[in-house]
Design goal:
Blueprint: H1 13-35, H2 52-100, E1 135-141, H3 146-157, E2 161-167, E3 172-173, E4 180-181, E5 184-190, H4 193-205, E6 209-211, H5 217-274, E7 277-278, E8 285-286, E9 288-292, H6 296-310, E10 319-320, H7 338-347, H8 358-372, H9 376-391, H10 396-399, H11 404-411, H12 413-430, H13 447-454, H14 458-463, H15 495-520, H16 522-528, H17 532-563, H18 575-584, H19 598-629, E11 644-648, H20 661-666, H21 678-702, H22 704-716
Antiparallel strand pairs: 1-5, 1-6, 2-5, 3-4, 7-8, 9-11, 10-11
Transmembrane segments: 367-392, 412-430, 508-527, 539-559, 571-589, 601-625
Biased composition (Basic and acidic residues): 660-670
Region (Disordered): 650-670
Length: 717
């Protein structure tokens, strides 16, 4: 009600910003829980929105917990890093001890080692005046950088060094990525200060962790002993830090779910209050809302309780205001219908007081799925899985999960239950259980009768791997199977051809019946809104177009099935050729007619279908145009009060408190007066006509997917 006020200048912007700051704090707390491997469950109860004093307490406690977590996490990371460095240093000294303390060979005279004493490195006879002290650079390096590091050392130092590489005995965490890797320990011995500087620079470039390497063996032993004591002390401190962190996280797990719900409610309240307008005294908020009529008592009671709890001296009140705007659509659902309503809403929400197709989709959607998934075994598995979810739907372990795939299955458990039940039914019709035929009733085909009539000999059977059962022979075919398809068809070589014809015709028939039912639902809308012209100018042409073309196709399917039997099946004409000739206004001498006068009847039907298109295209626009141009007499009819009423808090009956002149000029349209311009009306009707006519053709072809996917399911199984 205050669209002219800047979003940053509204009354409760500060409160909304405070709620957002608390949500940022909650996000940090939840991230810390996730990093610790803990899951945050849903709120066990439904807390109310906090008062101002309670909100301050929640903000203070959440920020205190966040500050503690930051400090503890920072200390833990520092202790882990220090402990990791000490362990790496200890491993470097241990592995370096193996290189620098090699025992002398047996029988060789003892001599001072060149690694820690001054001695001629080169042959004294060649360089008697050249003495060098051997130095060391020790550390660890990432295993991926060892090869490049070794090559660069060799090229930069020209071979004046001795480098040794060995893997660390235990893997350690990489501080950059957090992954556990096996570091490589290196020990480089060199002589010359310039070469040492090059080695250190190269080590820094490769992000190596270098450590001081004592020259004497005694110094190395003392250093290792000191490292052992430091590691033990740090381990104890780190364990205590982990325990304290676990205690803080326990507090977060207990308090955070309720805090999030409370702050979300508080933020939602302030966002709504920011959309309200003030009266002239700027002490009373005014709001206009849509509310279902049956919920008016609850709204009034909630406002009364709010006034009492807030200590306001003026009580809130609700008053209806007249309006000509179309109310929003409210469709009440329960746990059973919610899944089906979500599927329908994905394609579009019905307008106010229109027929909701979701109740019909409760049957049609699972049944159409079952046509493609018809199998007793597979349907039973799906039914039992959904039944388990339904029986244990109140279990917290099923509801409290973060797996989106599982939540999708769980929310559609009733949908899956019906799909499984219908799949069992269609599986009995197809006579398939895990793609195997079941013999519930004895077969209606008699092989013995055919064998006695044909006098099949052993030589004939040896040369003919496939035998034909002729239904025209008396006793071979004893009548239709009691329910579904005869199991003997699973042994036939023409099994696929038979199922192709059966499922293709079944898909077309069910698809056209489904489309016709959807068109007939429009009768309820036209009658309810008293749009009698749409019954004649829209519904009637739509049904004529659908039935004259595709309804006639269904008639041909059933007529051919009834008229022709096994005796004269060889001369039965092709329905497909007749349907093609129908649009071409021709006849085929090779394809016999199904009945007398078929060509004139088909011609009339095509002409009727074509004539219904301009009626559908121009009927409604011309009628609305003529009705507007006709002089109006009498007073206008009052606006109908539907299932939902606009409410006003603290306002007299009449127009909206914030209605402008432009709103009054552009608002208040009736259902038939949505498009004021004839061009817009005609464009809207043209789109509807093209969509309907093309949709009849494309949707009929789309229903053939039932046939294709049913065969694919049977083949893959």
């Amino acid at each position: 009600l205050n669209p002219n006020v800047n979003a940053f200048q509204r009354r409760f912007v500060g409160e909304v910003r405070r709620c957002e700051e608390m949500e940022k704090t909650f996000t940090f707390l939840q991230q810390e829980l996730r990093d610790a491997g803990r899951a945050l469950g849903p709120c066990p109860d439904n807390p109310r929105a906090p008062l101002a004093r309670e909100a301050l307490r929640v903000q203070e406690q959440s920020e205190q917990l966040a500050q503690e977590l930051r400090e503890v996490s920072r200390n833990r990371a520092s202790l882990r890093g220090r402990l990791r460095e000490l362990r790496q240093y200890l491993h470097v000294l241990r592995e370096g001890q193996r290189f620098t303390s090699l025992p002398a060979p047996l029988g060789s005279p003892p001599r001072p080692r060149a690694l820690s004493e001054r001695e001629p490195v080169l042959d004294p006879s060649l360089h008697q005046h050249l003495d060098r002290k051997i130095n060391f650079v020790a550390g660890v390096i990432h295993p991926w950088r060892v090869s490049a590091f070794e090559r660069l050392l060799w090229r930069a130092c020209r071979g004046y060094l001795v480098a040794s590489f060995v893997e660390m005995p235990e893997p350690m965490e990489d501080p950059a990525t957090g992954e556990s890797i096996t570091w490589v320990i290196f020990l480089i011995s060199y002589w010359g200060e310039q070469i040492g500087q090059k080695i250190r620079k190269i080590s820094d470039c490769f992000h190596c962790h270098t450590y001081p390497y004592p020259e004497s063996e005694a110094s190395r032993a003392d250093t290792m002993s000191g490292l052992h004591s430091q590691i033990q002390d740090l381990s104890v401190v780190l364990e205590e830090t982990e325990q304290y962190l676990a205690q803080v996280l326990d507090k977060v797990v207990l308090a955070l779910p309720a805090w999030r719900v409370q702050v979300q409610k508080m933020k939602a309240i302030y966002l709504i209050l920011n959309q309200c307008s003030f009266d002239v005294t700027e002490k009373c908020l005014i709001a206009e809302v849509w509310c279902p009529v049956q919920d008016l008592a609850q709204v009034q009671d909630a406002l009364r309780q709010g006034s009492y709890k807030s200590g306001s001296s003026v009580e809130c009140f609700v008053q209806r205001i007249p309006t000509s705007e179309s109310p929003p659509t409210l469709i009440r659902t329960n746990k059973f219908t919610a899944g089906f309503q979500s599927i329908v809403d994905a394609y579009g929400v019905a307008s106010y007081q229109e027929v909701n197709p979701a109740p019909y989709a409760i049957i049609t959607f699972p049944f159409i799925f079952a046509i493609m998934f018809g199998d007793v075994g597979h349907g039973l598995l799906m039914f039992l899985f959904a039944l388990w979810m339904v029986l244990y739907e109140n279990s917290p372990s099923l509801r409290q999960t973060s797996n989106e795939v599982w939540l999708t299955f769980f929310e559609g458990r009733y949908l899956i239950l019906l799909m499984g039940a219908f799949s069992i039914y269609t599986g009995f019709i197809y006579n398939e259980c895990f793609s195997k035929a079941t013999v519930i009733f004895p077969s209606a085909w008699s092989v013995a009768t055919m064998a006695n009539h044909s006098s099949w000999s052993a030589a004939y059977l040896a040369t003919h791997p496939s035998l034909t059962l002729d239904p025209n022979v008396t006793g071979v075919f004893q009548g239709p199977y009691p329910f579904g398809i005869d199991p003997i068809w699973s042994l036939a070589t023409n099994h696929l051809n038979f199922l192709n014809s059966f499922k293709m015709k079944m898909s077309v028939v069910l698809g056209i019946v489904h489309m016709g039912f959807g068109v007939l639902l429009g009768i309820f809308n036209h009658v309810h809104f008293q749009q009698w012209h749409r019954l004649v100018l829209e519904l009637l042409p739509e049904m004529v177009f659908l039935l004259a073309l595709f309804g006639y196709l269904v008639f041909l399917i059933f007529y051919k099935w009834v008229k022709f039997s096994a005796a004269d099946s060889m001369v039965a004409p092709s329905i497909l050729i007749h349907f093609i000739d129908m649009f071409l206004f021709t006849s085929n001498a090779d394809n016999l007619p199904l009945y007398r006068g078929q060509v004139p009847v088909q011609t009339v039907l095509v002409v009727l279908a074509l004539a219904s298109v301009p009626v559908l295209l121009l009927g409604t626009p011309l009628y609305l145009c003529c009705r507007r141009r006709a002089p109006r007499t009498g007073r206008p009819a009052p606006a109908a009060v539907g299932d939902q009423e606009p409410l006003l808090e603290g306002q007299e009956a009449g127009n909206s408190v914030n209605t402008t002149k432009e709103d009054m000029e552009s608002g208040g349209h009736s259902r038939d007066a949505e498009h004021l311009d004839f061009a817009e009306i005609f464009m809207h009707q043209a789109i509807h006509t093209i969509e309907y006519c093309l949709g009849c053709v494309s949707n009929t072809a789309s229903y053939l997917r039932l046939w294709a996917l049913s065969l694919a399911h049977a083949r893959e199984s």
